[in-house]
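$ ./design --mode recover --in tokens.txt
reading tokens...
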């Protein structure tokens, strides 16, 4: 749920049903970060809505939720000021070296990201489109797609198929949210 919810904070309103808000590891953690960043978050018994607002810097501990780091780094890229992702050393041992991959993505988009001890400090701004390398990591490819959807200029993602590992319907849902993409060679 993190990817479409962050898309809602960046580009409009997204409403999702069926989330487990008692799960501190996933859906709840991303909602906490969105609220800290200033997004409008509305929670009812049946659904969660996230609506675009002016976003500000936030701090999120990704030590227990490392899978959220790529999409939270995208949220930080669009948030005014310096956001901090804490306890990032664990990211080096995921499907890719996600810490390196996140810094690579943000650098290519023209966003500053610097390691400070076990934190990643991201200075928000106006991301630019770029040729992104997903490192065949499903969460990086999805984060790059959300970043690219709101960036200035066109973007390329080298491996769109890797998203099948965790979210086979990602590209369909991305298009339903208004995202545009094309597959080269088709």
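writing sequence...
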């Amino acid at each position: 749920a993190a990817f479409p919810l962050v898309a809602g904070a960046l580009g409009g309103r997204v409403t999702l049903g069926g989330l487990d808000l008692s799960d501190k590891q996933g859906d709840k953690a991303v909602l906490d970060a969105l609220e800290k960043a200033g997004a409008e978050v509305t929670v009812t018994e049946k659904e969660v809505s996230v609506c675009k607002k002016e976003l500000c810097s936030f701090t999120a501990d990704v030590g227990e939720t490392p899978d959220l780091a790529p999409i939270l780094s995208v949220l930080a890229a669009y948030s005014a000021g310096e956001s901090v992702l804490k306890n990032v050393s664990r990211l080096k041992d995921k499907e890719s070296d996600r810490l390196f991959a996140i810094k690579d993505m943000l650098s290519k988009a023209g966003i500053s990201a610097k390691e400070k001890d076990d934190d990643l400090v991201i200075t928000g701004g106006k991301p630019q489109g770029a040729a992104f390398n997903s490192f065949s990591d499903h969460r990086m490819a999805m984060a790059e797609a959300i970043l690219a959807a709101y960036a200035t200029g066109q973007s390329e993602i080298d491996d769109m198929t890797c998203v099948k590992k965790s979210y086979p319907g990602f590209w369909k849902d991305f298009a339903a949210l208004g995202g545009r993409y094309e597959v080269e060679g088709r």
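exit 0
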